[in-house]
Amino acid sequence: MAERYFREIAVFGLGFVGLPLSLCFTLGGCKVVGVDANADLVEEINRGVTHLQEQYRGFPIQQILQRELARGSFRATTDPREALASIQDIVVTVGIPVAGGEPDPGPLAQCLRSIAAGLKREDLVLVRSTLVPGMMRNLVRPILEESGLRAGEDFYLGYAPERIAEGRAFEEFVIMPVVVSGVDMDSLEESAALLRVITRAEIVPASCFEAAETAKLLENISREVNIALVNELSAVTQALGLSVFEVVRLANTHRRVRLLQPGPGVGGYCLPNAYHYLAPVARGAGVDLSLMPAARRVNDLMPRRVADMVLRLLPVPPVQARVAALGLAMKDFSSDSRSSPALRVAGYLREAGVSVRAFDPAVPRSCSFQVSSLEEALDGAHGAVILAKQKGLAIEDPGVFARLLDPAGPFVVDTRNIYGNPACLPDRQVPKDLGVRIISL
Ligand SMILES: NC(=O)c1ccc[n+]([C@@H]2O[C@H](COP(=O)([O-])OP(=O)(O)OC[C@H]3O[C@@H](n4cnc5c(N)ncnc54)[C@H](O)[C@@H]3O)[C@@H](O)[C@H]2O)c1
């Protein structure tokens, strides 16, 4: 007997958000067609292959994808018209890239035009991308209305910015409250009804698109500013011979203090872009921002600072030096290396003449100097720099550095606090006689 589906949904964009979101809907009893402009990605996904690092109740996304493809509840296509022919629920996850500090609405506009070409009466278009405030009103709605249909009269139009963290997508689609806005009350309610298929958390109505768009940016910018605070502090603690990680841990025992962790910088699609989405709107409104650009600058300078730490520790001139860069993802336990600070650290070292070999078991090959094993990265190098934690990186035992690094003054710059600060916690993990200097941020 043919399977009966609760709803049929088209999800536009099959990246870090769109693919797990599609599969979350299929797990909720829906049939999903995923549409992506990248033909190679579509072909890969239809073969059951993805490099995303997501899992649901212990099952890796690869297994879920293969099962849903086999059941016929999910498939991917590059053809929006075919996807839209019979489907009424349309979810958009195509984002706004930033080039040279400027948001580029091109890919989203192109996606919306492809939807407008197949839009029907009574369809729901629910946008989940992070937007520049004003875009729902001034970009999304007018492009969709090129169909000849009117939002709020002929079709429903809603906005519910996605809030998941990569690596926790399936869990957070269910437990994270969602902010929703609509072009009218019916659109808001239709959007909420679609979201209720997957979420058990509160659905929080916003009074207008702009409030929801700006709230999403504030969420990301607040993390960026908080990370900048501890990143800046790390320069002070380093100068004082203290561990920033210990100082943050101690301060966080105060019941009203929630500091974040420092690191080699802030990358990925979400946090740095949020400032670049808000800045032009503030400028246009005649408002001078000072804290937010300062935070962006502090975080943006971190890769340079980490590279300089490494350069100062080299026992030979940079052009004779070899360094292993471990963890290339933009954050711990991710396969995403977009705008990764790790790649920038490696870039600065290479610019100085250092030969860099990088290893990250989760990140698909993204640079010419990426090697496929820890041994290959470390073998004979003068030092290593740890830039992201990663399952399978296999550096829990710091003895591996003593065994594989060049014995002339070997060092490890540990930006992720894997080993603690040996000076502060002498008994923790790193034996005193390791023969390798371990330097924390
Ligand atoms: N990555 C995250 O953790 C995260 C979290 C919350 C919100 N967001 C937001 O969600 C949105 C998507 O982020 P992402 O990380 O999934 O991006 P992504 O780049 O991984 O995915 C976007 C996908 O859209 C596809 N695409 C581009 N043009 C298209 C078109 N015309 N038609 C169909 N598909 C097209 C791309 O090929 C790509 O696969 C962004 O707005 C982002 O800011 C991301």
Structure explained in plain terms:
There is one protein chain. By secondary structure, this protein is an alpha/beta fold. The chain folds into two domains: 200 residues, 3-Layer(aba) Sandwich (Rossmann fold), CATH 3.40.50.720; 213 residues, 3-Layer(aba) Sandwich (Rossmann fold), CATH 3.40.50.720. The chain contains 15 helices and 17 strands. It has an eight-stranded mixed β-sheet, with helices on both faces. Helix 5 runs parallel beside helix 6 and helix 9 packs parallel to helix 12. The N and C termini lie far apart (61 Å). Bound molecules: nicotinamide-adenine-dinucleotide. The site of nicotinamide-adenine-dinucleotide has 27 residues, from helix 5.
Number of domains: 2
pLDDT averaged residue by residue: 95
Strand % is: 5-15%
The biggest sheet, with number of strands, parallel, antiparallel or mixed sense and barrel status, is:
8 strands, mixed
Give the strand order, joined by hyphens, for the main sheet. Answer: 5-2-1-6-9-10-11-12
- State the low-pLDDT regions, or none: 424-428
Bound molecules: nicotinamide-adenine-dinucleotide
**CATH homologous superfamily heading of the largest domain:** NAD(P)-binding Rossmann-like Domain
Instruction: Work out the helix count.
Output: 15
